[in-house]
Design a protein that fits this description.
The complex is a heterodimer of chains A (113) and B (141). In chain A, helix 1 packs parallel to helix 2. Chain A has four helices and five strands; from the N terminus they run ββαβαβαβα. With 113 residues, chain A is an alpha/beta fold. Chain A has a five-stranded mixed β-sheet. Chain A has helices at residues 27-39, 57-71, 84-92, 105-112, and strands spanning 3-10, 13-22, 44-55, 76-80, 101-102. Chain B is an alpha+beta fold. Chain B has a five-stranded antiparallel β-sheet with strand order 1-2-3-5-4, with helices on one face. In chain B, a hairpin with a 3-residue loop joins strand 4 and strand 5 (123-130). Chain B is globular and about 40 Å long. In chain B, 37% of the residues are buried. The chains are: A alpha/beta (113), B alpha+beta (141). Chains A and B meet through helix 2 and helix 3 of A and helix 1, helix 2 and helix 3 of B.
Chain lengths: 113, 141
């Protein structure tokens, strides 16, 4: 089970590409990455989950933690996700009302700007 | 048919193995792929809770998963011997989203066709999933 995390800058946004499986075993790496990015001044984040193969509530919790962190710096955290199996757990938990979620990175970059 | 049992050491590294084995058995029982995805997440949630329950009180005993097909359904039981917890009442709209934990039970309830929590010498989570023929209407199950 692997988790891949790569970030890059797109204009004023930092895009974090997440790939692989996010569960209780791998989520600490995602949490560390978000803490590191926010700590380094990246307060406008887009987490691209297009390549995520699995995500459960531990991963949701880490994303909520990331949102809290950026908001404490008046920042934003948007998600890119086009996979129904993942969107489903955002709906079940009510988190679709908490995160802006976009179908594609282009849409996220345009809408968040 | 008897259930298959999986005894997992209380280490989070094994949650992925639990997902892999239970979903393989569900596919073998004829569950459709969309439903297998739901099952996979629910198993991950319940196994995570069970393993963390053992870790919190430093119980080294294994977490036990028992699973198998039953009359057109697929049943999974996950038993821990931790101190237990009261499953939270679902209140998605009124939920304090700033809390990072506690979403697992909400997810399980949202995905399983039926779920019960039994507290006796730990917590037993019983989840039932229709094998999923209702979507294609071929009358099985």
């Amino acid at each position: 089970m692997e988790l891949s995390l790569n970030h890059r800058t797109e204009g004023e946004y930092t895009v974090l590409d997440v790939g692989g499986e996010v569960d209780v075993y791998t989520a600490p790496k995602l949490r560390e990455k978000l803490v590191e990015l926010v700590g380094n001044g990246h307060h406008r984040l887009i987490v691209d989950m297009t390549k995520v193969e699995f995500l459960d509530s531990t991963g949701l919790g880490v994303l909520v933690g990331g949102l809290k962190r950026v908001r404490s710096h008046e920042g934003t955290l948007a998600l890119v996700c086009d996979q129904e199996r993942i969107l489903k757990i955002f709906r079940i938990t009510g988190l679709t009302k908490v995160f802006p979620i976009y179908d594609s990175l282009d849409e996220a970059l345009q809408s968040e700007a | 048919m008897s259930d298959v049992e999986l005894h997992l050491p209380p280490d989070v590294v094994y949650v992925g193995l639990a997902r892999l084995v239970v979903t393989a058995a569900a596919r073998q029982s004829g569950m459709d792929s969309a439903r297998v995805e739901d099952l996979k997440i629910a198993v991950s949630e319940a196994t995570t809770n069970a393993i963390l329950a053992h870790q919190r009180v430093e119980v080294a005993m294994p977490v036990v998963l028992a699973f198998g097909p039953r009359e057109g359904q697929f049943q999974v039981t996950i038993q821990d011997t931790g101190p237990g917890f009261d499953p939270p009442v679902d209140d998605v709209d009124g939920r304090d989203w700033t809390k990072e934990g506690g979403l697992g039970v909400t997810v399980i309830r949202g995905l399983a066709d039926d779920v019960s929590f039994v507290r006796e010498k730990g917590t037993q989570v019983n989840m039932t999933f229709a094998v999923g023929f209702e979507d294609n209407g071929n009358g099985r199950g």
